[in-house]
Amino acid sequence: MFAHLPLTALRTFESAARLLSFKAAAEDLSVTPTAVSHQIRSLEHWLGVPLFQRLPRQVRLTEAGERLFHSLHGALLEVTQSVDSLRPSSSATQLTVSTTAAFAALWLVPRLGRFYTRHPRINLRLDTRSEVVDLQQDASIDVAIRYSQGDYPNLHGLCLFDERFAVYGAPRQVALAHQQRPPLISVHWRNSRLYADGWQAWCTLAGEQWLDDPALIRSYDEEQYALQAAIAGQGLVLASNILVSQSVASGLLQPYRPQVQVDGAGYSALCVPGRERHPPVKAFLQWLQEESLRDGHPPLARGGAPGRSPSAD
């Protein structure tokens, strides 16, 4: 049934398509770039269609190449997981989760103790690089927790929470804000106006003219820095109800005019279809569901859940 399949060429193609580089595929497979090129051309000849566009110093998948890669990558992943399940279990299982530094510091890490208590054999590694992570191309990432108003129809998704922004401050700063104009703490996201638009929307709803004086606005590049500044009493911060939840629960921050809130985006946990059945991934997604419910946010599992790559803030 499968005797006619050129398995070596298919495995070579999967590596080259995932890495979008014949040279990187050669390193991945421990062969020469010439051998990779030969296998790809042999596969293209066998199929009768080109799989790559050869451009100066790079290659790009054709439409046929994209179709083959998506089906082949999922199939090889299934085989890998089946083989791994038959091997004697090691002392620990690796799980790599990609997310933003802010989500990791303010929501995920404070709760991970409960995950490790339940799954002591899973060694979870956090990847908080600022670069966009393509789950279809980067097989080293098991799960990405993303934040977006967009959709990812080619990924398995678990919608965790929908976010709302409100203004928070240390108790003394909140009390003073009812009497005098407070200094503001803002976050300057590199790739989006979502946060800046949120401040404007909040001020419009609240009837405040706070943004008229730039001298009273202190800006940070990351949410965790902004929240630490607010905890230290340096002003009021516009913050996500998700990321601020631990600080509010501990009494370090409290809302100012809590009835005034503006919509944010949504957090989703995403993986390549089929990977959700891998035991460490399945355990982590189930735990995320429970933590979301603990916070009062019933999640909804569905393919193509809204999500943003960890760096697209």
Fold-level CATH name of the largest domain: D-Maltodextrin-Binding Protein, domain 2
What are the segments in which pLDDT stays under 50 over at least 5 consecutive residues?
Answer: 299-313
Q: What proportion of the residues form beta strands (DSSP E)? A: 15-25%
Indicate the overall shape: elongated
What is the overall pLDDT average?
A: 85
Radius of gyration: 24 Å
Largest sheet: 10 strands, mixed
The CATH class designation of the largest domain is Alpha Beta
Helical stretch tally: 10
Helix/strand class: alpha/beta
Write down the domain tally.
Answer: 2
End-to-end Cα distance: 48 Å
Order of helices and strands: HHHEEHEHEEEHEHEHEHEEHE
Domain HTH lysR-type: 5-62
Family: Belongs to the LysR transcriptional regulatory family.
InterPro entries: LysR-type_TF_proteobact-type (IPR058163), LysR_HTH_N (IPR000847), LysR_subst-bd (IPR005119), WH-like_DNA-bd_sf (IPR036388), WH_DNA-bd_sf (IPR036390)
Region (Disordered): 294-313
Question: Summary?
Answer:
Pfam families: HTH_1, LysR_substrate. The protein is α/β, with parallel strands linked by helices and 313 residues long.
Descriptive notes:
- 41% of the residues lie in helices and 22% in strands.
- By secondary structure, the protein is of the alpha/beta class.
- The chain has 2 domains: 7-86, Arc Repressor Mutant, subunit A (Orthogonal Bundle), CATH 1.10.10; 91-313, D-Maltodextrin-Binding Protein, domain 2 (3-Layer(aba) Sandwich), CATH 3.40.190.290.
- The termini are far apart.
